[in-house]
Amino acid sequence: MTSTHPAQIRLKNVSLTYDLHLDRTNNLKEFVVNLFTGRKYVSTRKQKINAIDNLSLDVNEGDRLGIIGLNGSGKSTTLKVISGILKPTKGTVEVQGTVQPLIEIGAGFDPEFTGRENIYLNGYMLGFTKAEIRAKEKEIIEFADLGDFIDSPIKYYSSGMSVRLAFTIATSIKPEILVFDEMLAAGDAQFMARAKTRIDNLMDRSKIIVIVSHDMGLIESTCNRVIVLNRGQRVFEGSPEDAIAYYHNQNAKSALGAAPQC
């Protein structure tokens, strides 16, 4: 249901901490491996990792926000917090407007269900009524181009077939807030071209877009503001051009720091 209020995203002092387990010896098999390989026990069994560290962020209607950063900087985690997939350890998240996350698409599929049954399952999870799913069913099947496989269990699908169906279902909704990460790695070239057009149309209709990508061309052409994350903290915010320049400089310094010293 479309809200009558302006779409907004508010993150205030948000942190998300998780435990990184360092000691894998928690069963008999690991014990035997340690015994015969001489692998030592670690002195610290786990440590705390701050995936997001005290992040505050305001995104208003009309914003096309890009989030960039080195691997492990907290980009995808931030998207999941905005989408409600992950709950922050500290801080508050306020989202006004319907959200469609295109993140890890297909994760909600039941492999024992047919493609058609998964359309209804995923459609229900996205908030559609049975009548609304039925109205979209034919278009979804045709766009995903699965033919008779639509009535076969998902477990028999190739990765490309699963991606096509998951993507088509996810992009059938008309969200006010579109949140997406890089995707479609398993899609064939012909489907990728159709998918890009579908995403472009979806972005045109969305009131807010939040996008994570390593494709700086996509970030520059899509976004009107960009933030750079590093270890879960915002280290820069500005125009796409300035943020990308900062990111490349950060990347160069990281590579230099990793280089062996003569």
The whole-angstrom Rg is: 21 Å
* Number of H- or I-type helical stretches: 8
Q: In CATH terms, what is the fold-level topology of the domain at 1-97 and 207-262?
A: Rossmann fold
Broad structural category: alpha/beta
- Sheet bearing the most strands, described? 6 strands, mixed
CATH uppermost class of the domain at 1-97 and 207-262? Alpha Beta
Shape by Cα distribution: globular
Order of helices and strands: EHEEHEEHHHEHEHEEH
Task: Show unreliable segments.
Answer: none
Please name the fourth-level CATH homologous superfamily of the domain at 1-97 and 207-262: P-loop containing nucleotide triphosphate hydrolases
So, CATH architecture of the domain at 1-97 and 207-262? 3-Layer(aba) Sandwich
Query: Helix content range of the residues, please?
Result: 25-40%
Kindly report how far apart the N and C termini lie. 62 Å
Mean pLDDT: 85
* Strand order across the largest sheet: 5-6-7-3-8-9
What portion of the residues fall into strands of 2 or more residues? Answer: 25-35%
SS elements, strand count: 9
